[in-house]
Structures are given as structure tokens and as C-alpha cells.
Amino acid sequence: MSDPKDFVTGVGSDQRKSPVRVAFITRRTSAQVKAHDESIVQSFPEVLFRAAIAVQVLACVLVLISLFFNAPLEGLADPSHTPNPAKAPWYFLGLQELLHYFPPVVAGVLVPTLVVLALIVIPYFNINIEAEGLFTKDREKRIKIFWFVAIVFCVFLLIFDVIVALVPTLITVALMALAAATPANAPSAFRRSLAAKPLSFWIMSWFLFELVVLTAVGTLFRGPGWSWVWPWRS
To answer: What residues make up the domain containing 157?
Structure first.
């Protein structure tokens, strides 16, 4: 036996207010239900709006730079006179700098492949969804893992004598160690900010730091034979 239902007789045509009803239809009425939809407000995505502004500002800056400065173009390519050093475009100079230290298979194939695979795979892991500080939970365990990974990676760079990449790594490790040693009620706002940074922040910061340093070294400090030169002496 089904549960008894209480029905109250009333007059109305708003099915949203009273979705359950018994309708009595006579000859002079119809089953049409009156409904009023809410007004639709046109909106514009905030992030897309900021991106559009950034693109316009960057385009204006590039136009102004092109009006006052000529592009650093060289002469036509001549197979009989190869420039020394033969440098890649600036966006590949970081990779070309790695080729100076590592074997071609490691720097040209293994490292880029691992980076691309990491960018593809990492988003599928449930890692730090709340974007909390790296050392907030499981503090002792995470600190031990951090020091193990940092020491192994620094030793790896020392074995291959990659001092250019070692210096930014040591700076990043020092900042992470400062974040690990920062209590929650630290008086310094800078240290509290470091302690609140998630793992994704540290990985991306290290990657951008390395990219900028390697590109700058390949652009300014590499002379004939890919030897180390000072920019003000060349």
C-alpha cells in the first residue's frame, strides 16, 4: 500500500511553485501552464577579458619597439662562411646550452621527452588539489623526500659539470628549505608566503628559472667554439 498523499485544492498556473498537482480541465479552460523565465544577463569571462587586454598591450609594445629599433638580422646565409658560433634562435638556446654538457641523446631526446611526458601525465594525478603549502601536511616525511631528491639532483648536475644549471637549482632548494623551516605564525610575510606555496609553484618556478638562465648564458656568454666569454670583452 502506498503512502497517503495530502492534496489541497487551489487555483494557480505556476508549475514551478507547485510541481505536483491535480488538474481539472473543463470545456472553457485548457491545460496550458503559464511560466515566467528569469531574465538572462549577458556576461563576459573575466579571464578571457584579461587575456585580451594583455595581448593588446603586448602588440602595442612590440609595434613601438619595432619603430625605434631595427631587428638584429644578419646577412644572407653563406655555406662557405659558417658563423662561429652557430647559435640557434633564442627560444632554442636553452636546449643548445644543454647539448654543451650532456650527450646529444640525453639533451636532445631524453630530457625534452621527459618534460613533455611530465606535462601530459602530471595533471591526471590527484596532487595537491587544494593548492596548500608543500610542507603543511606530513611535514617530516615531505622534508625527507625533498632533501633526498634535491641532493640526488645536485650530485647529478655536478657529475656532468653543469654549473650553469646547478646555481639556479641551489637557489630554488635554498628557498624551499626556508619554506620548510618557516612556522605557521612566522612574523615575516615573505616567509609565510613561501611556506604557503604548493608543489606546482616550486616545479614551475625552477623550470622557468633554469630556462631564463640557460637562454641568457647561451645568448651573452658563448663565443667562438662555444667557449665561455664575457659580454663586455667580445
So the answer is: 91-233
Q: What pLDDT score does 234 carry?
A: 57
Structurally, the chain folds into a number of domains equal to: 1
How many angstroms separate the CA atoms of 231 and 200, rounded? 35
| Cβ proximity of 101 and 107 under 8 Å | yes
Separation in Å, CA 233 to CA 54, 178, 226, 227, 230:
38, 38, 15, 13, 5
User: Before 85, cis peptide (omega within 30)?
Assistant: yes
Please give the C-alpha separations between residue 13 and each of 6, 25, 30, 31, in angstroms, as whole numbers: 19, 12, 11, 9
Cell numbers at residue 232, please? 663586455
Q: What's the alpha-carbon Rg for the chain, to the nearest Å?
A: 31
Q: Which of 153, 179, 188, 182 is nearest to 168 (CA)?
A: 153
Which 3 state secondary structure label does DSSP give 228?
strand
pTM over 0.85: no
150 assigned to some structural domain: yes
Residue 127: pLDDT band (50, 70, 90) is low
SS3 222: strand
Question: What's the whole-number average pLDDT of the chain?
Answer: 81
Q: Residue 71 domain-assigned? A: no
Tell me if 204 sits within 8 A of 119, measured CB to CB. no
Please, where are the H alpha helices in the chain? 46-68, 93-101, 104, 111-121, 139-159, 163-180, 189-195, 199-220
